[in-house]
């Protein structure tokens, strides 16, 4: 039986698993976020798949595990059995943790999960910030946190655009300086307009509450996974030829 399940799992291993669930859990001053993938939305809602995801998350929290390979090894036998039962490839994709004075989490359905760590904030504010991160997808906490390689790449793109407009290089460079300030604000949490009150930035909101965000993590199901578009008619024709 176990051998049969392993054979089925091996056959499914090459299938792209880009659907699935995001799970979050806060345990004292540390929070965890986990992504587990399957192939279809139908299986993502399956009770057995959900129970497996919950079990993996609980193990990560209990053991303070942030190495996904450790979780994969620990749950490989159960994963193989679930693949054999459900009939889809299943993958424990990633896990991360966040520590902080005040922690908050938000889940938009099962597809987007966010953790936020802050200091000087109450739980309600942190929850609102997590909702903002889910909606606005910031990449950094503050404009000054934007990495040098990201800044350089965007600078070159904007400089090329400015130069193509026929402006002298000196003027083009000054134009780009202004654009870069806008860019670093757009990709950072504190520089973005607060989704619940767009007239103020998240930075202004934090200042009003004498609070600060120390970190955040945002996971979205399947991000970065290249999905294979299936031609249903061709798939049926191929199956009929095999039968």
The CATH homologous superfamily of the domain at 1-99 is named Elongation factor Ts, dimerisation domain
Q: What percentage of amino acids are in beta strands?
A: 15-25%
Strand segment tally: 8
Helix content: 40-55%
* N-to-C span: 25 Å
Which CATH C-level class of the domain at 1-99 is it? Alpha Beta
Give the C-alpha Rg: 22 Å
The topology string of helices and strands comes to HEEHHHEEEHHHEEHEH
Low-pLDDT stretches: none
CATH topology-level name of the domain at 1-99:
Tetrahydropterin Synthase, Chain A
The spatial strand order of the largest sheet comes to 1-2-3
Structure annotation, total helices: 9
**Biggest pleated-sheet summary:** 3 strands, antiparallel
Q: How would you describe the shape?
A: globular
How does the helix and strand content classify structurally? alpha+beta
Name the CATH architecture of the domain at 1-99.
Answer: 2-Layer Sandwich
Overall pLDDT, averaged? 91
Regarding quaternary structure, how should these chains be classified? single chain
Subcellular location: Cytoplasm
Domain Translation elongation factor EFTs/EF1B dimerisation: 31-223
Family: Belongs to the EF-Ts family.
Function: Associates with the EF-Tu.GDP complex and induces the exchange of GDP to GTP. It remains bound to the aminoacyl-tRNA.EF-Tu.GTP complex up to the GTP hydrolysis stage on the ribosome.
């Amino acid at each position: 039986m176990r051998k049969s399940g392993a054979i089925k799992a091996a056959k499914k291993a090459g299938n792209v698993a880009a659907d699935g669930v995001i799970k979050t859990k806060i345990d004292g001053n540390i929070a965890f976020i986990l992504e587990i993938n399957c192939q279809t939305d139908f299986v993502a809602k399956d009770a057995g798949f959900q129970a497996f995801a919950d079990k993996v998350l609980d193990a990560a929290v209990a053991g303070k595990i942030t190495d996904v390979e450790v979780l994969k090894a620990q749950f490989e036998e159960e994963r193989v059995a679930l693949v054999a039962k459900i009939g889809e490839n299943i993958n424990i994709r990633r896990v991360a943790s966040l520590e902080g004075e005040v922690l908050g989490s938000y889940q938009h359905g099962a597809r987007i999960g966010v953790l936020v760590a802050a200091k000087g904030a109450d739980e309600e504010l942190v929850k609102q910030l997590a909702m903002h991160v889910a909606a606005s997808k910031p990449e950094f906490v503050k404009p000054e946190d934007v990495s040098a390689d990201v800044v350089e790449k965007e600078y070159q793109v904007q400089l090329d655009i400015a130069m193509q407009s026929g402006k002298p290089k000196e003027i083009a460079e000054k134009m780009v300086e202004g654009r870069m300030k806008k860019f670093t604000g757009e990709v950072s949490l504190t520089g973005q307009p607060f989704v619940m009150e767009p007239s103020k930035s998240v930075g202004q909101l934090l200042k009003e509450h004498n609070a600060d965000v120390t970190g955040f993590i945002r996971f979205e199901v399947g991000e970065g996974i290249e999905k294979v578009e299936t031609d249903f008619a061709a798939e049926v024709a191929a199956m009929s030829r095999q039968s």
